[in-house]
Every structure is written in structure tokens, then in C-alpha cells.
């Protein structure tokens, strides 16, 4: 079922083999990393979740890249190992392609906590947001978003409960977290907003 409030289109290169993730009501799911190059040359490595039927339907071709369309998904990791909020892309359609790298995402959801506005050490303005995007059946995906500059300033004034539409790219970002006295490199996943607007 398509979700017009949550759409993703990615074109990138598989950065690893599929491994078993979990079993759902409709069968087994696998995950694999997809590397999508930005215009800057940096790669976003994103986690793709795919049903076994779609994985089995992929035919080996010479095309070097995969085109994935689907939606952003989140779940709370209660194992105590790894990140607490896990962000993936659920592949609704997947195929080999020779197309250019692509990374576009649009989500519409409810602002579920007050935006955090700040300036980076280089003086850039940034706002962090968390959107609850309805999945149906009284469930939601919680998706972190960041905005910069004028978009960040506008976002800083939005109230909890506002309905927000964000369009941009899904990115992976490395950061360092201190665990006791030990610095540990971790990866955050978020939507970097190109546009963001309140829907009245």
C-alpha cells in the first residue's frame, strides 16, 4: 500500500549482501546497505529493508545500480545494543538500473517535540525536528529531520502538534559519542530538509 505522506526514491549501489532481519506477518524480511553519492562526493550509506519475495524477484543484470522506491520506517531498539531509534527504508519496488545517483524523500507528519534551534561552531543556523508520520492502524514512524538557514529559522517557530511537510534527502551522518571516557563513533540517520512548510 502506497503512503503519499511518506515517499522515498533512491538510486545507489549495494554496499553489502542482504542479511536476515526479521519475520513479519507476511513473511521474512532482509536488510542491506545502499550507498548513494551526493553531489559533494560524500556517500550516504542507508539501510534498505526488503521482503523476501521482492528480493527473490531481482534478476542479476549488468546494470551497476539499484533503484529503490518505498518509505522511511522507524522502530525502537530495546535490545540495549546499537541505536535506540533505528531508521530504515522499506523497499516497495526495487530494480536494477544504469541511472544516476538519486536521493529524494518527502514526508508529512506531526511535530512531536519542540524544534531545537542552534548555531554550529562555523555560525550556520540549524534546527532539529522530530516528526511522527502516520503509518495507519494507529501506528507512526518517528523520523528525525534537520533544516538549515532560513528554513531552520522558520522551523524554530513551529509548535508541537503542527502538521509539517518536509522534502529533502535521507542522509547518514557520523558523530562521536562519549561512553564513559571512551569516544565511540556512531551513525545518525535523518532527513536533511531542502524545503519544510507548516500545513495549516
Describe, in short, the structure shown.
By secondary structure, the chain is mostly beta strands. The chain is 6% helix and 65% strand.
Order of helices and strands: EEEEHEEEEEEHEE
Report the β-strand fraction as a percent range: over 45%
The first-to-last residue Cα distance is 26 Å
Report the average pLDDT across residues: 92
Q: Estimate the global geometry from the Cα principal axes.
A: globular
The helix/strand class is: mainly beta
| CATH homologous superfamily label of the largest domain | Nucleic acid-binding proteins
The main β sheet shows up as: 12 strands, mixed
Spatial extent as radius of gyration: 17 Å
Number of domains: 2
CATH class of the largest domain: Mainly Beta
Low-confidence stretches: none
- Helix content range: under 10%
Given the structure, what is the number of helices? 2
**CATH topology assignment of the largest domain:** OB fold (Dihydrolipoamide Acetyltransferase, E2P)
The CATH architecture of the largest domain: Beta Barrel
Would you write up a description of this structure?
- The protein has helices at 52-57, 149-155, and strands at 6-14, 19-24, 27-37, 43-51, 65-76, 85-97, 102-111, 116-119, 125-136, 139-148, 163-179, 182-198.
- Strands 1, 2, 3, 4, 5, 6, 7, 8, 9, 10, 11 and 12 form a twelve-stranded mixed beta sheet that branches.
- The protein has two domains: 6-105, Nucleic acid-binding proteins (OB fold (Dihydrolipoamide Acetyltransferase, E2P), Beta Barrel); 106-198, OB fold (Dihydrolipoamide Acetyltransferase, E2P), CATH 2.40.50.
- By secondary structure, it is mainly β.
- The protein is 6% helix and 65% strand.
Amino acid at each position: 500500500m502506497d503512503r503519499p505522506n511518506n515517499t522515498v526514491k533512491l538510486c545507489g549501489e549495494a554496499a553489502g549482501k542482504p542479511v536476515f532481519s526479521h519475520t513479519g506477518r507476511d513473511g521474512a524480511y532482509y536488510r542491506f546497505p545502499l550507498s548513494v553519492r551526493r553531489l559533494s562526493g560524500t556517500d550516504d550509506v542507508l539501510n534498505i529493508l526488503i521482503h523476501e519475495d521482492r528480493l527473490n524477484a531481482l534478476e542479476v543484470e549488468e546494470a551497476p545500480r539499484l533503484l529503490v522506491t518505498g518509505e522511511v520506517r522507524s522502530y525502537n531498539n530495546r535490545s540495549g545494543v546499537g541505536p535506540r531509534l533505528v531508521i530504515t527504508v522499506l523497499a516497495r519496488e526495487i530494480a536494477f538500473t544504469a541511472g544516476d545517483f538519486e536521493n529524494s524523500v518527502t514526508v508529512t507528519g506531526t511535530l512531536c517535540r519542540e524544534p531545537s534551534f542552534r548555531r554550529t561552531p562555523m555560525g550556520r543556523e540549524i534546527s532539529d525536528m522530530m516528526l511522527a508520520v502516520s503509518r495507519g492502524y494507529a501506528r507512526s514512524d518517528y523520523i528525525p529531520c534537520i533544516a538549515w538557514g532560513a528554513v531552520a529559522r522558520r522551523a524554530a517557530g513551529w509548535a508541537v502538534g503542527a502538521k509539517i511537510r518536509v522534502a529533502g534527502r535521507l542522509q547518514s551522518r557520523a558523530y562521536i559519542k562519549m561512553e564513559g571516557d571512551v569516544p565511540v563513533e556512531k551513525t545518525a540517520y535523518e532527513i536533511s530538509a531542502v524545503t519544510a512548510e507548516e500545513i495549516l
